[in-house]
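Q: How would the structure tokens look for this protein?
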Amino acid sequence: MRLSAVLAHARAWLPGRTTVDMRERLRAVCGAAIGLFVTAVLCRWLAGPLAGVLGSAVWLIAPLGASAVLVFAVPASPLAQPWSVIGGNTLSAVVGIASVSFIPDPALAAAIAVAGAIGVMFFARCLHPPGGAAALLAVLTHTTHFSSALFPFFTNSLLLVLAGVVYNSLTGRRYPHVQVAQPPRADARFSQADIDAVLARYNQVLDISRDDLESLIQQTELESYKRRLGTLDCGDIMSPDPVSVEFGTPLQEAWALMHDKRIKALPVTDRTRRVVGIVTQADFFRQLDLQHHEGIAGRLRDLIRATRTVVSNKPEVVGQIMTRQVRVASAERPVVDLVPLFSEGGHHHIPIIDGEKRLTGMITQSDFVRALYRAVRPEN
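A: Here is the predicted structure in token form.
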């Protein structure tokens, strides 16, 4: 075996660098100290009156230290959630007590206890690594009273979870970390079903919730866009001096501009070139009854044709059909900031304004895709 292969194999055993900062590390350290202290004090106080009833003087279990690591250092982990902690430790203790009660050989009882605990936790959906230690502890201490599962195992776990809920909430961490189902988007690059399919093929316990995994993928994509788009500003990719109309522009004139220039949207400005709205082809068709497809062309001609009478029962100028709520961006704004607007916000045209908030350009989806393609394509 070559030396390089040996070194590569040796490096595989080394831990990766942690990505959390010192503040997060201190938050976890302090949380574990406070949580275990509160749990220990309360359980030591309870141990006195309960010792005679439950037949045990033990008031704190060693696996709780491992539970504290999960609850306070990785509160988003599925293995650290309240039911995982409480159910995992308690049910595993029951399995351990049953094993030592019915299997005389301690070595066999220990193996059966841990294996059985894993199986029970899988079945009860409360997989919790310290649960294996809880089952083993029951065997090693030859605990035969099933009441011990209630105290100290259940009581310890419950108090630690309650401390975790309070501390994590106060320090800005969501706990319990309930999965938040995101509504499906038609323009999303991947769906929850795609993630489920990949996880099914992976077929291993993943120590991250699905909503966190989806969020990390999306943020990674955005970070990649930022890196590849570099320092491009909106002014670098916009179409300058776009065709625009004013509030009082007749519909027929606006429609003719769209047709002649082969564009689908026109910014609407006031006399100082400040954007007051946007009119698109969709705004025109919104005025028609699209439930009946026959005669759409004729109805469109009737809509844009100017009325010669004083009173009209239909829109006559752009300002009557335009969309007033329009998203704009400054020419100095980084292009990457437009990613959510185009990919998730449903926008197709973004007017660009200068330092005095006057219209200076337009970015369409085509402009954005072209800039993205130039940024990500391999260099020759």
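The chain has a mean pLDDT of 86.

The chain is about 55% helix and 5% strand.

Upvote if useful.
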